[in-house]
Design goal:
mainly beta, about 10% helix, about 60 residues, 4 strands, two-stranded antiparallel ribbon, 1 helix, Alpha-Beta Plaits, globular
Length: about 60
Amino acid sequence: MKPEVDASKCIGCGTCVEHFPEAVMELIAKGDYDKKKIVDIDFEYCKGCGVCATVCPAKAIIMKK
């Protein structure tokens, strides 16, 4: 299972980022002119545990095969 972020739902709160080591998740700028940030997941380090989907208050992360 891998997490998938729905950019339209992500509020950029960073709650998911706080639950993982530095290399797994980070907040990045959505676009050049948009100041909103969304979570980016490095799948090289992601273990597919699903904690990020569980703690997301906006339900912007879902687990997919």
